[in-house]
C-alpha cells in the first residue's frame, strides 16, 4: 500500500507499455465530446468559404466572370489566382500544384476560386454561379493513355538486378499477362477542413485536419508571402486521414488562409463530401504488364514488371509512392533476376496521393497475382508455391534494391497461421463443397506480407517531442505526430508513463502545434509511434535522470539503482510518491520539462540506382480468407478470416489488433467493392457514398480471428515494437485471391481467371464468363 491506500504493484512487474489500454480519446469519441476542427467554437466574425471548381478536364480559361457570384446572398468576396499575396502553389515536393487554376484547368474539380460568404450554405450556392468560358484541350484520362503519349509527371524509374532477359529465356515455364488494380477514395469520415484565424502583425493561426502540420505551415507562409514564424498550425485530431491528409490538406489551408488574410476575418473552409471527392487525389491505380519465368517446382527464375500509374495532373507524392511500389514488388519473395519499371502517368484527373500502404500494396499485389497463376499452371496449392519462393536460405536474403533482410520470420509465421487456421483441412472442405454446389462456389487463399518501415525519403525519418512535468506531478506531452484515430497519442503517453514510472492516467497529450515542436515530418509511413515515441522517450528520460540525481542527493545511494514504477520512486530503501519527489525537486530548482529528439539510424537510399537501405526493419504478416461467390450474381461474402500479424513487442495489443482489423476491412474494400469511375468527359461520377461502395458492418466476416505474432523487433525500435498502421492493408489480398479461387473452380481450376481489382460483382461475372468461354474452347 502507498500512503494514499492504493496497492502498489511490484516494481519489477510494473509496465505501462506492452499492455492493452483504451484509446486516449475513446470515451470522448463515444460520447460525441471529442473536438474535431469543425467543433471548435467559432470566433465572432467568422465567415465561410466554398471553392469554385473546373467543369472541364483540360481547357484554357478564356474568361472568368464572377459578377453573379459576388451578387449572391451573403457573399463578401471572391478570390482567384490574381489575389494570392504570395506563391500560387501547394505542391509538397515539386511545385506544380496551383492553389487556384492559372490560365488552364487540368481536371474536372480543380479549384478556380474561393467565394466567402456569411454562411457555409450561402458560399456553396454562390460558388456555382461563376461564368467561365473554356477552350477545351485534349485530355488524357488513363494511365495506359498517358504511357502511350509518354505523358509523365516525373521520369520513369527502373530497378534491375541480375540478367532478367537471359534468365527468362532459359526458364522452362513462363507466364505473361497484364493486370489492372484500381485506385481508392480515402473516405475519411471527417472531410477536409481548415479554419484560418488572422492574428496581430501578419500572424495566422490555422486550425485544420492534417497529418502534416509543418507542411501546412510552409504552404500557408508561401501563399501569404510570409515566413514560417508568422504561421501557427494546430491539429488536435482528425476523423481519419489514411494518407489523404498528408499533402492534400494543403489546398484547403492555403485557400482559407488567403481569404482570411485578405478579408482580415476568420475563414472556415469545410468541404462538402462531393467536393472533397471531386477535388482531392486518391490511391493510385496501377496497370501492370508482367513476364515471369519459373521452373517445374514453381520457383521463380526471372521476373519483370512494367507498371504505370495514374498520377493525375501534378506530381504530389507520386514519386515516393512509385518508389515504394518498386520496393515492394518482391513482397516476401526472393527474386534473383528481376527488372522493375514504374512510370507516373500524367493524366487530367485528381492528383493522386498517399493512401495507407503508399504504393506498397500496389507493388506487392502484382507478384501475388503471378504466383497465383504459377500455382494454377502447375496444379499446385498456391501456398506451396509461395513458400518455395520465400526469402530465406543460402544467398536468398537480399532484396532487389540491395537491403539485406535480417529479420525474416515469414516462414515460421505462415506455418503458425497455416496450422491455427486449419488451412489444409479447409482446402479439402472447400473442394468438397464446390463439387456439390454448382451455383455457390467457395474459395480459399493464404497471402503473406512483408512491408518496409521508414520514410523512403531518408531525411523525413526524424521527430521531436516536449514533455512537461508540472509541480503537482501531472505530465503533459506534445510531439510532432498527429492523431487520426490510430492511437499515436495513447502509445506516446504510454511510453512517457513507462519512462517516468507512472500510470498513463497521469499523462495527457496535447494538440499537435507547429509552435511547440518545429520542422516535423508527416505522420505517415506507419512511423508515427516509432519516431515520436522515441523522441518522447528521450525527453522523459532526461527528466527522469534529473529526478533520479536529485533523489540520490536527498536519500543517498546509487543513481543507477533508482527505480521509477507504479507511481513511486524507489531510492536507497526509500519509497517516495512520484508527485512528492517532483514537488521537492521543483523547490530545489530542478528543470522538470525537456525536449526530446530522434532520428532513425542506418538509413540510406540512392534514387539513381534505386538501391540502399531504405527501411529500418520489415514487418510481416499473413492472412487466410474463405469466401463464397454467387456465380449468378457475382456477389461474394467473406465467411472467415484468420490473420497473424507481427507487431513486434506490441506497445498496445488492443490498439494494434484494432489497426489490423480496420486495415483489413479497408483493404478488402479497395480489392472488391470500391470502384472509381470517370465519364468520357473526365468527371469522376463516383463522388458520393451513393455510387462509391465502401465496406459496411455487414461486409465484415462473422468469424474474424486476428492475432499478434510473438516476436521482438531485431532493430532497436521503441520498446522493440513494430509499426502497424499500413502493412495490414495488404492482408486482404487473401480475399481477392479467395474470390479468384472460387471463380477458378468454375473451370475446374484449369484456367487462370482474368480478374482485375476491384473484384466487383460485374468484374467477377466477367471473369466467370471468360473462364467458361476458355473451357468451352477446350482449355
Ligand atoms: N487508423 C485510423 N483509425 N485512421 C487513420 O487515418 N491512417 C493510417 C494508419 N492507421 C489511419 C489509421 C495510415 S495511412 C498511417 S501512415 C498510419 O496510421 C499513421 O499512423 P502511425 O504511424 O502513428 O501508425
Ligand atoms: N510513406 C508516406 N509518406 C511518404 C513516404 C512514405 O514512404 N515517403 C515520403 N513521404
Ligand atoms: Mo500513411 S499513407 O503513410 O499516411
Task: Offer a quick outline of the entry.
By secondary structure, the protein is of the alpha+beta class. An eight-stranded mixed beta sheet has the order 3-5-1-12-9-10-11-20, with helices on both faces. Strands 7-15-14-13-8 form a five-stranded mixed beta sheet, with helices on both faces. It has a four-stranded mixed beta sheet with strand order 16-27-28-29, sandwiched between helices.
What does this structure look like?
Its cofactor is Mo-molybdopterin cytosine dinucleotide; FAD; [2Fe-2S] cluster; Mo-molybdopterin. It is a single chain. This protein has 779 residues and is of the alpha+beta class. It folds into three domains: 46-138 and 186-279, Alpha-Beta Complex (Aldehyde Oxidoreductase, domain 3), CATH 3.90.1170; 286-456 and 607-778, Aldehyde Oxidoreductase, domain 4; 462-599, 2-Layer Sandwich (Aldehyde Oxidoreductase, domain 4). The protein is 29% helix and 24% strand. It has an eight-stranded mixed sheet with strand order 3-5-1-12-9-10-11-20, with helices on both faces. A five-stranded mixed sheet has the order 7-15-14-13-8, sandwiched between helices. Strands 16-27-28-29 form a four-stranded mixed sheet, with helices on both faces. Strand 21 (563-565) and strand 22 form a beta hairpin. Helix 6 crosses helix 7 and helix 10 crosses helix 11 (382-389). The longest helix has 28 residues, at 528-555. The protein is globular and about 90 Å long. The mean pLDDT is 97. Bound molecules: ligand MTE, hypoxanthine and dioxothiomolybdenum(VI) ion.
